[in-house]
Amino acid sequence: MNPRADASPAGAVHSSHVRRFTRAEHWVHRVTGALMGVCVATAACLYIPQFAELVGRRELVVRVHEWAGLMLPVPVLAGLVSRAFRRDLGFLNRFGPHDRVWLRAALRRDKDPESRPAGKFNAGQKIYAAWIAGATLVMLGTGLLMWFTHLTPLMWRTSATFVHDWLALTVGIVLAGHIGMALGDPEARRGLRTGSVSRVWADREHPLWRP
């Protein structure tokens, strides 16, 4: 794979900052994060007795959880109207030799930037994006089976409940790791918040990216 395959179109003006995300991408991430947060919070209220006692009104919590789950794919689908968002989805879906180098360095806990070549998105971000997208679809499918109980046999509903509950726990753990990584990288958070990052950070963390 060409290591410059994650490059953005040429012509950007050289300055101390580079454009990383558009406003559309900012809102896709923000709304998706808010919906995911509602799903996790309501799930906690449904399954952890101490939270359930604090909140009460279980029927309302169930309805909020169901509708937030149904709405989860909407921001991504709406974001497809943005060319920049579609281009970044292409970057996230492209795994090359430099990503394998990045993963080997991560497994060795080698934090030397020269050992972790990355395009616009590193291998960890690509794996996370693919995993959370797949998990969301599975959660949506199993949730629908649990919601429309009259449409499926009891065995299907029981299996769907088992998968939904345990995958929800896994999603919560993975999201906690994702948030922890974000808290440790203020510049990456700034990129999502404002759309721009420092050129120094981009050159250090994503040396194969050519904005």
Q: What's the total helix number?
A: 10
Give the strand line-up of the largest sheet: 1-2
Spans of at least 5 consecutive residues whose pLDDT stays below 50 are 1-5, 7-13
Strand content: under 5%
Question: Cα-atom Rg, whole angstroms?
Answer: 20 Å
Major sheet description: 2 strands, antiparallel
Number of strands: 2
Question: Rough shape?
Answer: elongated
What does this structure look like?
The protein is mostly helical. It has 10 helices and 2 strands, in the order βαααααααααβα. Strands 1-2 form a two-stranded antiparallel ribbon. The longest helix is centred in the last third of the chain and has 30 residues. The two termini are 18 Å apart. The N terminus is likely disordered.
Q: What labels would you give this structure?
A:
Cyt_b561_bac/Ni-Hgenase; disordered N terminus; 211 residues; mainly alpha; 10 helices; 3% strand; two-stranded antiparallel ribbon
Compact overview of the structure:
With 211 residues, the protein is an all-alpha fold. Helices cover 69% and strands 3% of the residues.
